[in-house]
Input
Amino acid sequence: MDSYHHGNLRAALLKAAFQLIGKIGPEAFTLREVARRAGVSHNAPYRHFKGKEDLLAALATDSFRQLNEAVIRGIAGAVEAPVERLRAAARAYLHFGLANRARFQAMFHSTFDRQEYADYVANYSAALTLLDGLLVECLPPGALPSEIPGQLVWASIHGITELGIAARLEDGDRERLLLLVDAAVDTLLKGLQHVRM
Amino acid sequence: MDSYHHGNLRAALLKAAFQLIGKIGPEAFTLREVARRAGVSHNAPYRHFKGKEDLLAALATDSFRQLNEAVIRGIAGAVEAPVERLRAAARAYLHFGLANRARFQAMFHSTFDRQEYADYVANYSAALTLLDGLLVECLPPGALPSEIPGQLVWASIHGITELGIAARLEDGDRERLLLLVDAAVDTLLKGLQHVRM
DNA sequence: ACCTGAACACCGTTCAAGT
DNA sequence: ACCTGAACACCGTTCAAGT
Output
């Protein structure tokens, strides 16, 4: 029998949206097409989402959750040395971005009002906290006078990922980008030991 | 008398598009509204642009030109010390991004085929070359074994700007972001003197 | 409760027609 | 050459109506 009458239409819509966004990118994203793919009428989604923006916020939130999981898996696969763990996290971040262009865009470049989406904020904060925790283990014990180091490392990894996604770094294949992420981690760690914040 | 019959409709459309994109952002960007603002019928733009994507590419190209000019102005206003010049360039990059959200998005997050827009590629390359030249002057004479340092510095500044635009760095007001950009330049320069590439 | 069809005011793009 | 109006196949969103 047809499903979608047992409260799982919301999940089905999100799944359809993911497939669609993965196929055609977020700029061509269409609420009516999502409904079509879920096998319901074009305005059925309004029972579960306030509108297109609300669905996009749900996508962004779910994507942040997946990013965090991917980073945690990356760390779990690394050896115990703190620098290696930070590197693994950075690589996982880059890899997630490259493999999920559309979700990355939903996470960072959509324009819903974040204040209204506590779940989104929570998952976003978790990502930053995760990275920051790894960084602290890499720096000398007394050296955490501000949140600047964490933001620096995050921004650098994020910048490499953004430019990698946009294919704006010459010869920007995956291997080169991974080298660049490693270089960023190493260079920043070295630098952070010599610069007073 | 009405203008737009002397070959300046193209320029008028670009100007209208800038105003529109500055007001409502690039996600709400509409070809028909641009035409309306330029005072012509909804399909007059097709005489000057192949379509919406073509107009967007022109916007991106023009925006890169403006970014380069802004960075050059920033350098000109700095003292001669190489590090200060690099810092000034980095600050100008950040400032341009924060003040031109929509253009930044057009430059980096639109999806036209770059191969078809030589002008875009030229202006993009100029930006990278500019930054790279400043960086070389900051490093010890023999220390340019690869293009990695330049990409690192660029990606870091770009990442800070992207996150700043998205308001994803806590307490992300302009002053803090400028401090962060300075810290990025200092930390990376320090680190680059200690890490072998 | 949950879903539907019809309707409204929009899009981007095309095309025959006007000057 | 450059611009126009009408038309096509779409949007997001709303609403009265069905079960």
User: Anything to note?
Assistant: Helices of chain A lie at 9-24, 31-38, 52-76, 82-99, 101-109, 118-138, 148-165, 174-192.
